[in-house]
Amino acid sequence: MDEQLHTLIEFLKKPSVSATSEGIEETANYLKETIEKLLGVKAYIEKTKGHPIVYAEVNVRAKKTLIIYNHYDVQPVDPINEWKYPPFSAVIENERIYARGASDNKGTLIARLFAIKHLLDKKELNVNIKLLYEGEEEIGSINLEDYIEKNSNKLKADAIIMEGAGLDVKGRPQIVLGVKGLLYIELVLDYGIKDLHSSNAPLVRNPCIDLARIISTLVDQDGKVLIEGFYDDIRQLTNEEKELLKMYDINVEELKKALGFNEFRYNDKDKIVEALLTYPTCNVVGFECGYTGKGSKTIVPHKAFAKLDFRLVPDQNPYKIFELLKIHLQKVNFKGSIITHGFEYPVRTSANSPVVKAMIESAKIVYTTEPQILPNAAGTQPMGLFVYKLGIKDAVSAIGAGGYYSNAHAPNENIKIEDYYKAIRHTEEFLKIYSNM
Amino acid sequence: MDEQLHTLIEFLKKPSVSATSEGIEETANYLKETIEKLLGVKAYIEKTKGHPIVYAEVNVRAKKTLIIYNHYDVQPVDPINEWKYPPFSAVIENERIYARGASDNKGTLIARLFAIKHLLDKKELNVNIKLLYEGEEEIGSINLEDYIEKNSNKLKADAIIMEGAGLDVKGRPQIVLGVKGLLYIELVLDYGIKDLHSSNAPLVRNPCIDLARIISTLVDQDGKVLIEGFYDDIRQLTNEEKELLKMYDINVEELKKALGFNEFRYNDKDKIVEALLTYPTCNVVGFECGYTGKGSKTIVPHKAFAKLDFRLVPDQNPYKIFELLKIHLQKVNFKGSIITHGFEYPVRTSANSPVVKAMIESAKIVYTTEPQILPNAAGTQPMGLFVYKLGIKDAVSAIGAGGYYSNAHAPNENIKIEDYYKAIRHTEEFLKIYSNM
């Protein structure tokens, strides 16, 4: 076994479950030592209010500086009895390594380190690298914003590569140029101190009915958001981005089957891709009010609440959308309180930016196939923090050792050994091309 | 202590909590024996799927027959530590008897029995009596409909007096000529088999948003029900009934304070009485969907449900309203299922019916004050079962030993001994006048 595989397997054998804190400290220390050993630079365990961030710089006095973001924490292993091998045993079977975190994202993390090492060894590293390894990605990156704000000088860079992308169902590398943003709020209506017998229904307003009405003023049957100004700041897709969407390949029937909803809005592949990646949404995550047990009880509930997430697209600003929402709620006579649970910026890096161009070119070399390029992901990642808090212009999620088959977040997570080596090569080629641009 | 008080106190000392079944059997047996001892007729313990009904007939071969309905079960005693005396000790203090069930409705039940006994003793009972004592009133009369259907021949009668009315805050006897009806349903929308990550929100319909929209098509901000035809069958109040409403006395500020809702619809006393007694309602009792725990989770829920009660007024038919509702739901694109939890008919007996006239006249004699007469109650009672299933034309809730002070359903339930004796006299006078009409 070569050093590249051996280092990965040792890393995979270390539990690092952020939700339970299992093995977090030991894994952070092991990562620090690994960086120092492979790259010959000093690495730091940096405290946060939660799990530490592992940080290191490789300064080759180049003109350009790149942040490489990964996380060393993993998802919990439940349901444990569905695993073929213990989740932290890193058993190899049929040219695959089985371990929690193999795909998300320890394989990718170590692959990138070896690529840097190889370039250093060959004296071919011509871009300064800042390595930022988070320990809380799987629990919502809850202390990352604070860390970034406090270290904004140290973290100056021209571009950043995130994790999260891998190989699609046909083995093509994904290159994701951005993320959706998020506004997460909770609406609470509380009209009294206790539920009333429902014979009083003629005398009082019902908070559940009022909240239902208010929700129906926010979004229509087709999913169109009815808040005035909501769509105003949306950046139109360029023709190039529209082409990328068309080239994006999904199997409609498989997707529908996997989601299992009978109330599916679209049948056309192009429409599905467009909606998934470019439509902002107002979604009700949860709603609770009054008596919800078995059978019947006759009350007027005094309180109702709903949790809503708004997925935002470039250049919607979550703070501005929140202001528009408050104006709307006043218009529709909402007499309650609003709790905020999160603001995340959307990002869409230009397909013409150096980091993206280098990513595409290097992917073609290593995988000898067209990469699958997404203008942005359907979901949300802390990418927006780097772009908006640090002013880093270009961000991209790409280079992943995991694939469609990898069972990320599920039992029997695994990667193909071959894909791990390809991720090393992809990183190496990318860094070379990018530094020459 | 005379026999009338002694018999009541012994009855109050017997627990008969329908919710827990505590003492139900013993109390039913004691009631049977008490009827037989006092009235010299045979009484029966009649089985149901739940707690038994105690039934007896006093046939004096009169032309008219009256059902007297009461229940021998009581509410649970919680919170037990707020009672001054143990709830089944029936302690007398300051001319009041403290016991669970004293007001609701064991005092009334025994008072009526003694009135019949007195008339029998004086050979002045000129109306046939059918005594029907339920053991499940406090748990929703769940087996009464079945019993009534199976015994419709035996239960033929000209009129019925129910329990539930007593003395108001000024000591005036209440006479309630009817009840609201009820339609209780649950709407369920289930679009999938599992909740989805909310990055899929653009692709699928959200059952919570759809259910909120559907609710907002059922009822507007002012409480007006938007189902076509909902108001069509409402019987207009007669001028006499309108007068009764105006004469009905409530303290608006006290009522508002007791309900404790800041979203109160009316301030005018007459408007409040009108709304409370004559407006039908569409009320959401409960609504649940998706994630309702702490903080944030980003899902599209696959399922949502809501429980709704419709309070109906004469002559709305709960089964017809249900048909109208189904038509409405189809119009607004409801793609879910409907669970029914209950259909109860509204009742409003004419103020000119013999039973009501006799009740008013006898109340004036005993209480030397104007009774408070309600065209119907704000709530629902099984009265409709007797009127619609048995074809009994006239029904009234009146004659109660309890008052505004009585803490029914609460700790330290009590009645004034004086009001118990007045209930005996009221029943006696009522039966005399009614039989002569």
Q: pLDDT below 50 for ≥5 consecutive residues: which ranges of chain A?
A: none
Give the total of domains of chain A: 2
* Main beta-sheet strand count, sense and barrel state of chain A: 6 strands, mixed
Biggest interface and its residues per chain? A-B, 75 and 76 residues
Instruction: Give the second-level CATH assignment, the architecture of the largest domain in chain A.
Output: 3-Layer(aba) Sandwich
Pfam family, one (chains A, B): M20_dimer
InterPro entries (chains A, B): Cyt/Met_Dipeptidase, Peptidase_M20, Peptidase_M20_dimer
Protein name (chains A, B): Peptidase M20 dimerisation domain-containing protein
Domain Peptidase M20 dimerisation (chains A, B): 180-333
In short:
Chain A has twelve helices and 19 strands. Chain A has 437 residues and is of the alpha+beta class.
Overview of the molecule:
2 copies of one chain form a homodimer. The first copy, chain A, has about 425 residues and is of the alpha+beta class. Chain A has 2 domains: about 5-180 and about 345-435, Aminopeptidase (3-Layer(aba) Sandwich), CATH 3.40.630.10; about 180-235 and about 280-345, Alpha-Beta Plaits, CATH 3.30.70.360. Chain A has 12 helices and 19 strands. Chain A has helices at about 5-10, 25-40, 100-120, 145-150, 205-220, 240-245, 250-260, 270-280, 320-330, 355-365, 385-390, 415-435; strands at about 45, 55-60, 65-70, 90-95, 95-100, 130-135, 160, 175, 180, 180-190, 195, 280-290, 300, 305-310, 335-345, 345-350, 370-375, 395, 415. In chain A, the strands form 6 sheets. In chain A, strands 1-2-6-3-7-18 form a 6-stranded mixed sheet, with helices on both faces. A 4-stranded antiparallel sheet of chain A has the order 12-14-10-15, covered by helices on one side. In chain A, helix 1 (about 5-10) packs antiparallel against helix 3, helix 4 (about 145-150) packs parallel to helix 11 and helix 10 crosses helix 12 (about 415-435). The longest helix of chain A has 20 residues, at about 100-120. Chain A is globular, with a radius of gyration of 24 Å. The two termini of chain A are about 35 Å apart.
